[in-house]
Design goal:
about 15% helix, about 80 residues, alpha+beta, Structural Genomics Hypothetical 15.5 Kd Protein In mrcA-pckA Intergenic Region, Chain A, five-stranded antiparallel beta sheet
């Protein structure tokens, strides 16, 4: 996502899920341990919230706030 407005638009369309439940509220509260499902650039990303930020910060800090969960339905690339 490039901007907060892009994220807000996804949420308002109901494209974002929190703990498997669709949400259409950009102000929905997140808690540590919540799982977000978000469509991004033709893919679905599943993210677990590790920490909550006290302020907006640089992207490097944001990377420490979540963990990406591999999609179990995605094909694996295992060499035989």
């Amino acid at each position: 996502m490039r901007a907060r407005s892009d994220c807000a638009a996804l949420v308002s369309r109901g494209s974002v899920r929190i703990n498997r439940q669709p949400t259409d509220k950009a102000h929905a509260r997140l808690r540590v341990g919540d799982v977000l499902t978000v469509p991004v650039r033709g893919e679905v990303r599943v993210l677990r919230v590790l920490k909550l930020a006290s302020r907006r910060g640089p992207p490097a800090e944001a990377l420490l706030l979540y963990d990406e969960i591999a999609d179990p339905a995605a094909p694996s690339c295992v060499a035989h």
